[in-house]
Structure formats: C-alpha cells, structure tokens
Amino acid sequence: MRVTLVTETFPPQVNGVSRTLGELARRLGERGDAVQLVYPDYGDRPDPPHACRVGSISLPFYKELRLPLPPFGRTHRAIDAFRPDVVHVATEAFLGLSVLRHASRRSIPIVSSFHTNFDQYSHHYGVGWARSLIWRYLRWFHNRTLETYVPSRTTIAQLEGRGFDRLVLWPRGVDCTFFRPDRPGRTAVRETYGWSPDDVVLTYVSRIAPEKNVAYLAEAFALVAARRPDVRILFVGDGPSRGDLEARMGGIARFAGYRVGDELADHYAAGDVFAFTSTTETFGNVVLEAMASGLPVVALRAGGVGEIVRDDDTGLLVDPEAPPQVFAEALIKLVDQDQLRGRLARSARSYAESQSWDAIMDGLRDRYAGVIAQGRDLREPAPTAP
C-alpha cells in the first residue's frame, strides 16, 4: 500500500496531533507500506523516506505551528511521482485544500481526519465572529473526501449535527511499555524539584494556552495550594499563557517547559494526580498518556476527555460549568484519600493497557484498503453485456 499523508503538524512538533500522525507513519512503515509525508520544513534532518517538505511561516498567535504557504506545484509533482493508492489529509488549511483539489483531479482516493475544534479555538483568539464561516468550510472540506476519521463518539455526534457525512471512529492508543508508573527517571525528576517520596504531586501536561482553559486550572490549583500547602504542582509544556501563569504561580508551582521522549514519560510518572481542564479536546492524548503512567485524572466532562475518563473509576469528572472551587475540591479529595487515589490509579492504568496502538492503526489501515478498493471500482468501467 502506498499512502500520502498530508499535515501541517508533524514531529518534531510537540502536540497530540503530531504524535498521532507520527505513530501512524511509523506503524504503516513497520507493516511494509510506503508512506509519503507532506509536511512543513522544520529543519529536522535527515529526511524521512519519500518526504516532501513544504515552506511555511509561524502563526503569530500559535508560534509552535507553521502554516505552509502556496504555491504547491512542487508538492503536486511529488505526489504524482509517488503514485499513492490513497491520500490522507490530516489538516484543512492551504496545503490540505490544495492537495484535496489535486488528488480529486487525479481521481486518487482521498480521506481526511478531524483533529481540532477550530471553531472553539477562534473564540480564544479573538476571531469568534468567523465561527459560522469556519464550520461551513470544514463541512465542505471533509464532505469532499471518501471518509473522515474522528477520534471520539462525542465529536462524531457534534459533526453529524452540523451536516458532516461519512464519519468513522478513529480513537487513539498509547504505548504502555513507554508510559508507565515505574519509569526509571521518576525519582530523579522528583529530586530535581526538591520533592520527597511522600509528597503528592498534581501534574498538568499540555500546551499552556487559552484554548486549554489554563486560567481556570490555575485558579483551581491556587485554591488547592491555599488549603493544602504541602501539595506540589507541576506544569509540563509551554505556550502563550506560560508567562502569566508563572508570574502568578511561580511560588507554588514548577514549570518544566516542553519535554519529549524519556523526559516526558519520566515527568508523567513523577506525578500522583493528573489535572486537565480543557473543554476543546476532540480526544485528549495527554489524558491517555497520564493514565498509562498510573495517574488518576481529574478533568472537566467535555469533548473526548469525557469518554476516556470514567467518573469514580479512572478519575473524577467535574461539570464544565462548575466553578474552579469545585474542581479544586475534586483534586483535594484525591490528595487526602490515599486509598481512593490508588484505586483510581490502578484502574486508569488498566484502561490504558486496553488501548493498543496496534489494533487502532490496523483498523485504520483496513479502512484505507476499503477506500482504495472503492476508488478502483469507481475508476473501472462497468462490464458490457455480452
């Protein structure tokens, strides 16, 4: 199978979408498929096989992301030379639109995936007025592909309500041999921050940005710290809100910045409870990674996160309309009750172990095969009657 994967975010970018697509490319390669990556040029070397890097600029409101800019003639020629059986467009901006049109002209089967609630992001970045236009474009874009892969049933229901067609569930997995509670670097991370083995650590891992609802989280953490001053708080990640949060919480929280690879897994394992207040997640990869690391989760019951976390089983869920005080009380409950925290931690780990990347990616690969066969049937003329 020959697959062209088109995306505006890919490793070494640090976010859930890039990690998912990196995992997809790796596992397709392990199964003997040829994968052509079309993605922004991050300056990383060496080139992956069949890679087509695209010139890009940083977004002013989201500097970690790079927006590929036209013209895309070289990209089209690279796709033609690769001769893919299927094109998977993972992001919907200029590059994705250009490839969608090119693949359609070439009658190449094309699929897409929906990863980000851009309409909700628009509210946080001052362009909420464009919501209806964004939804109309996204619906138009995805309905021109043969299938759209969506990470949660909640998001599928939302998209179906807005007129999206041919939606297929494509959840996320986690590597439980990598993200695990007994990471060798766990103790070293805690010692680095001056924490004892008995300290309870509340951990947040994600982009530190308005769309992640971090102002709400910071308020809840401050309430916890005021009532339980021995609790430790750790932020792992970076983003436009980090400066404000660090100035506000520098005395009661540690900020580790972005971590990847073994350092990221060790920082998860160094925690005791995972706190997550985003309401914009279509899935929430970091939540599943935290659960694999043996952390019970306290989260808002919103988006895909509400499907991953089972209340009073793998964590505690708080109504998204509840004030930060209610979220703080849920955190304090796990801080104070060791047995409850341990029970939820074991259940969280057990759930994560059931979420195999192999099964999830094999399922997507089967969808590709079906789409390729469907495209072949459409291209082949119907047999004439004798």
UniProtKB/TrEMBL annotation:
GO MF term set: glycosyltransferase activity
Residue intervals passing through the bilayer: none
Entry's EC annotation: 2.4.-.-
Keywords attached to this entry: Glycosyltransferase, Transferase
SUPFAM superfamilies per the UniProt record, alphabetical: UDP-Glycosyltransferase/glycogen phosphorylase (SSF53756)
Family annotation (CDD domains): GT4-like
Domain Glycosyltransferase subfamily 4-like N-terminal: 14-177
Protein name: Glycosyltransferase family 1 protein
Species for this entry: Paludisphaera mucosa
